[in-house]
Specification:
Elements: H1 8-12, H2 16-19, H3 37-48, H4 53-56, E1 69-72, E2 75-81, H5 84-89, E3 101-107, H6 119-123, E4 127-130, H7 140-143, E5 149-151, H8 156-160, H9 167-178, E6 184-186, H10 196-208, E7 214-216, H11 222-232, H12 242-253, E8 254-260, H13 295-307, E9 312-314
Parallel strand pairs: 3-4, 3-8, 4-5, 5-6, 6-7, 8-9
Antiparallel strand pairs: 1-2
This protein binds cytidine-5'-triphosphate.
The site of cytidine-5'-triphosphate has 19 residues, from helix 12 and helix 13.
Amino acid sequence: DGELSLSRSLVNSSDKIIRKAGSSIFQHNVEGWKINFSLVLEIRKNILRFLDAERDVSVVKSSFKPGDVIHYVLDRRRTLNISHDLHSLLPEVSPMKNRRFKTCAVVGNSGILLDSECGKEIDSHNFVIRCNLAPVVEFAADVGTKSDFITMNPSVVQRAFGGFRNESDREKFVHRLSMLNDSVLWIPAFMVKGGEKHVEWVNALILKNKLKVRTAYPSLRLIHAVRGYWLTNKVPIKRPSTGLLMYTLATRFCDEIHLYGFWPFPKDLNGKAVKYHYYDDLKYRYFSNTSPHRMPLEFKTLNVLHNRGALKLTTGKCV
Ligand code: CTP
């Protein structure tokens, strides 16, 4: 029926890839990879049945009035008030309206990027998507610097910018955002309670410093729609990771999608240790039951799609 079908056995064996990442179970063809345009179109069409990334990538100003109360997407019992600042930063129209690209890069944050020398290749794509405000300048040779679209979970304020406790944390943050110019800054503000103070501080800093960055806040239905698409295709994720969300959205805008920095395993194929993030010392969390993600399963799925020519997954060196 033209549906993308990933066989159950492949899905079920996903956990083994953690233990056997170095063995032949991981089949990944690099030489001879070719895009399969009809599959790309079919996937785009199927995803469109669940969501329209042009619309769902962000709520717009007319969706709310200041003072409106909404229920958090993943915690319906709790609510958030749409503040004046938040409302003033909602885009008038979708920041992705009518934007189409021949090639895009979606850059995950795995330590597999270190020593990859992928920076130039990543920057050569027409549109570059990055996750969680990951630093780039110090790692430019491996990760590049071009950032057309960058996500920011509210928890990043705590994790990477000291919770804005002192002026230098705030300055560092403003400096990071000013480097983005008019790129899209995508803030999942409506997922769960807990980050609302951080989102407000971020909004206030953007307004006060008149930063050019184009803020976007995912629609209330996006995450369920993305999960629905993958579940329908027999990929039982709990909650899509930011990286998988970005790939799913990118299928709408990009003909050829190249993924870098996806490697949710502590070792590479030669048994060498791989950091969870290329830029900090965060530990692997998905082994614990508290992690909302199933990154190894997602990875396995992306690898199947790579082998079928739907996307290109780079996990080695670029030169
Ligand atoms: N990623 C990966 N392997 C890693 C680390 C990250 O494949 N070792 C991918 C995941 O798809 C992840 C994305 O890169 O969503 C961005 O990484 P990160 O910022 O670490 O995401 P998390 O905060 O861990 O997870 P999320 O934002 O999805 O909740």
